[in-house]
Amino acid sequence: MIIENIPYITISDEYSFSITACVAMLMSFHGYDVARFNINDRFGQLTISDESFNDSFYILNQKDGSNANRNLLVARTLIESIAPELSPMIVDSNIKTLRYSYIKRNIPIIVCGMFPLVSGRVPGAIIIKGYVGEYLIINDPRGNANTYYKSYYGENVLYSMNNIEQWVGGDNIKLLRLLSNI
User: Fold this and answer.
1) What are the CA-CA distances from residue 22 to residues 7, 8, 59, 125, 143 (Å)?
2) CA 85, CA 162: separation in Å to the nearest integer?
3) Residues 36, 83: Cα–Cα separation, whole Å
4) How high is the pLDDT of residue 89?
5) Which of 117, 160, 167, 127 is nearest to 8 (CA)?
6) Which residues of the chain fall short of a pLDDT of 50?
């Protein structure tokens, strides 16, 4: 099963973070002309304004010192400021139930984690948009994590459930989902 019509956006000058590219992909999927919102700059401004996130950020449990949960919080706030009707929400889930809770209901989701490089790991965000067998179908704006990002093309890549569990967590992950009320 795959959710169709999610545009693929890579990390570029316009979207310098994987999380902003993922936000742009999801908002485009929901019919928004993301070019007019300057998502990258807004994300940067929200990230710098620490005071507005202190309480909420500490409520989110940060597992490994990455900025994954903070990025989800800032992305949610960004989407709320542009399109509150999309009802962005950060939800606790586990990787094994994603296909039944979201994908089968045509709800693509953003998850953040620490993805592999030859020299270590890099924080990033991906869109989970489908599954086949024990693999999830991913739009990864950085490229293909299976190749340690030596391949820069990350549209419709297959990541095994085992790899996703290692990279974003298995039993308790935070995800960002949008529900269109339009």
Assistant:
1) 10, 9, 23, 7, 12
2) 34
3) 13
4) 92
5) 127
6) 52, 55-66, 182
| Tokens linked to 27 | 């908002």
Instruction: Mark residue 137 as left, alpha or beta (left: phi above 0; alpha: psi -120 to 50; beta: remaining).
Output: beta
What letter represents residue 162's amino acid?
N
For the entire predicted model, the pTM comes to 0.87
Local structure of 84: helix, strand or coil: helix
Mapped onto helix, strand or coil, the DSSP state of residue 176 is strand
Extract long-range pairs of 164-172: CB within 8 Å, 24+ residues apart: 164/95, 164/111, 164/136, 165/95, 167/113, 167/114, 167/115, 167/116, 168/68, 168/95, 168/111, 168/112, 168/113, 168/126, 169/63, 169/95, 169/113, 170/94, 170/95, 170/96, 171/94, 172/61, 172/92, 172/94
pLDDT of residue 25: 95
Report the alpha-carbon distance of residue 105 to residue 59 in Å, rounded: 28
Q: Cα–Cα distance between 88 and 56 in angstroms, integer?
A: 15
Name, in order, each residue with C-beta under 8 angstroms of 116's C-beta and a sequence gap of 6 or more. 122, 145, 148, 167
Helix (H) or strand (E) segment spanning residue 138? strand 135-139
